Amino acid sequence: MAHHNEEQEHHEQYGVLLYYKYATIPDLDELFTFYDSNCNSLGLLGRVRLSSHGINVTVGGKLPSLEKHIAAVKSKSLFQGTDFKLASCHEPSNDKLAQECGFNSLSIRIVKELVTLCSRPLLKSPEISSAGRHLSADEFHSVLQNAGQLQGRGSPSSDTRLVLLDARNLYETRIGKFHSLNVETLNPEIRQYSDLASWIDNNSEQLRGNCVLMYCTGGIRCEMASAYIRAKGAGFENVFQLFGGIQRYLEQFPDGGFFKGKNFVFDHRVSVGSSDAIVLGTCLLCSSSFDDYSSRSRCTYCRMLVLICEICQVCVLGFLHLSGYLIILILHLQACS
C-alpha cells in the first residue's frame, strides 16, 4: 500500500527540466517536429530553442512526463552525453510569474544562436570545440579549496594566479555568488549576456596569463564565453568551467559550499538556495536584506530586474502618484550602478 502511494505521489508531482547540447543538427525541421509532437503529447510547457549548432531546453510538467521526454531525447544519437537537470518543485501558482517566465505555454523556436554572446557582429564566432575544460562540482570545489592548485593533465603551474569569473547578469549576482578567500573574483556586472564579449575585450589584461575559472547557472553561457576567451590566443589557454553550473554544484554541496546566497533560475521557481539561509541581496531603496525577485520589479529604462522589498513596493506605489519620474530615475541609477 505504501509503495502504491509513493508511485501515485510521484505520478502527480511536478518538476522542471533543463538541458542543452551543442551538436551539428542536420535537419532542423525534423527536430522541430519531434519537439512539437513530444512536448505537446506529454503536456510540457516552457521554452525550446533549436539551432543548427544544438538545443537549449527549459520545460516543466509532471515528473513521469519529463522522464519520458528524457528517454525520447536520449534515443537520438545526436544527444548522447547530454546533462539532464531534473528537479521536483511546486507547480506554478502565480499566473503572472508563470507567464513572464514562459511556463504558461510551450514555445519552440528555431534561432540563429542558442545564447547571444555579443550584440555586435563578430568577425569570427568562437568554435565551441575550443571551450574551456569542464570541471565537475567536486573538482571545482577542490580548486577553490586549494586556491588554484589544479591536479592532473592540462593543469596550470603552481605559480599561476587563479581568477574566478562570473558569466551571469548583474541581477543574478546580487542574490548569490561564489566566494573563496585568496581567490580574486571578477564580476562583469553586465545587464545582459550579450554584453559579456565587450567586457572580456575591455578587461582582457585581467585574464591574460591567469587560470580563469568560470561559472554560470547551468553551464551553457560558459561554453561560448570560455571559447571566446581562449580564441584570443597566447596567454588565454587556461580557461576552465563548472560543468552543469551552479545547479550541479548545489546538488553536490547542499550546504552551499563556496556558493553564498541563492541561484537565480529562469523559470517560475525564481531562485534555488542551499540549506544555508544566508541572504546576500538588499532592497534598493531601504537596504534591508531581501533576495526575492518573484514580484518581477523592473527598471523602467533598461528593464533589468531590481530588488524592492514588500514594504518599499507599497511606499513606491504611493510616491509614484506624487513624483513618479524622479522616483523611477533614482531606481534606474541605483539598479544599474
Structural features, described:
This protein is α/β, with parallel strands linked by helices and 337 residues long. The protein folds into 3 domains: 2-110, Alpha-Beta Plaits, CATH 3.30.70.100; 128-252, Oxidized Rhodanese, domain 1; 281-337, no CATH class. Helices cover 32% and strands 20% of the residues. It has 10 helices and 13 strands. The protein has helices spanning 2-12, 28-42, 63-74, 95-100, 137-145, 170-173, 196-202, 220-230, 245-252, 310-335, and strands at 14-22, 45-51, 54-62, 85-89, 106-110, 133-135, 162-166, 176-178, 184-186, 211-215, 239-242, 259-264, 271-273. A 5-stranded mixed beta sheet has the order 4-1-3-2-5. A 5-stranded parallel beta sheet has the order 6-11-10-7-9. Strands 8-12-13 form a 3-stranded antiparallel beta sheet, with helices on one face. The N and C termini lie far apart (58 Å). Mean pLDDT is 87; it is low at 150-154 and 321-326. Keywords: Membrane, Transmembrane, Transmembrane helix. Residues 158-258 form the Rhodanese domain. It comes from Ilex paraguariensis (yerba mate). Pfam families: Rhodanese_C, UPF0176_N. The chain crosses the membrane at residues 304-331.
Record the SSE blueprint.
Blueprint: H1 2-12, E1 14-22, H2 28-42, E2 45-51, E3 54-62, H3 63-74, E4 85-89, H4 95-100, E5 106-110, E6 133-135, H5 137-145, E7 162-166, H6 170-173, E8 176-178, E9 184-186, H7 196-202, E10 211-215, H8 220-230, E11 239-242, H9 245-252, E12 259-264, E13 271-273, H10 310-335
Parallel strand pairs: 2-5, 6-11, 7-9, 7-10, 10-11
Antiparallel strand pairs: 1-3, 1-4, 2-3, 8-12, 12-13
Helix pairs in contact: 5-9
